[in-house]
Amino acid sequence: IKMAPKPRKVLQLLRLRQLHNGVFLKVNKPILQMLKLVQPYVTYGYPSLKTVKELVYKRGFAKVNKQRIPISDNSIISTKLGEKGLYGMEDLIHEIYTVGPHFKQAS
Q1: Which residues pair with 103 in a beta bridge?
Q2: 37, 7 Cβ separation under 8 angstroms
Q3: Conformation bin of residue 67: beta by default, left when phi > 0, alpha when psi is -120 to 50
Q4: How far is Cα 27 from Cα 25, in angstroms, rounded to an integer?
Q5: Can you give the pLDDT at residue 1?
Q6: Average pLDDT for 32-44
Q7: Calpha distance 93→100 (Å, rounded)
Q8: What is d(CA 41, CA 56) in angstroms, rounded to the nearest whole number?
Q9: Rounded-to-integer distance, Cα 84 and Cα 27, Å
Q10: 38 near 14, Cβ under 8 Å?
Q11: Which of 6, 18, 41, 96 has the smallest CB count inside 10 Å?
Q12: How far is CA 6 from the centre of its chain?
């Protein structure tokens, strides 16, 4: 896709490197300005709890030893995020939905 350099860089910063990708972001002023810049190329909004749950269960991946591993059971979550107080799939979904203190590690 032909695109100006600035929106292309913003999409990289938002971790949107290919078509049909999605990310959870914490809303703040710089993020909103970046979203305005790439508005013709993206869709954004507030997800419902049901949407977050479906996305994490269906398309959830964890990064373990620099490898993307599908989240198949709670042991993967508890080994990586146990010290943050996240021990299972429901804890992870709650952290992402409520944008809790460990949102960055959870997403």
Answers
A1: none
A2: yes
A3: beta
A4: 6
A5: 62
A6: 93
A7: 10
A8: 23
A9: 22
A10: yes
A11: 18
A12: 22
DSSP 8-state class, residue 88: S
Single-letter residue type at 90: E
**pLDDT tens digits for 48-104?**
999 988 988 888 888 788 888 888 888 878 877 877 778 888 888 888 888 878 788
What are the tokens at 31?
Answer: 């993020």
Read off the amino acid at residue 2: K
Confidence of residue 34 (pLDDT cuts 50, 70, 90): very high
Mean pLDDT, residues 25-42: 93
User: Comparing C-alpha atoms, which of 47, 48, 43 is closest to residue 20?
Assistant: 43
The two tokens of residue 93 are 């979904």
> H-type helices in the chain, by residue range?
5-13, 29-37, 49-59, 74-81, 89-98, 103-106
Tokens of 45: 């909004």
Two tokens at 7? 């929106």
CB 44 within 8 A of CB 70: no
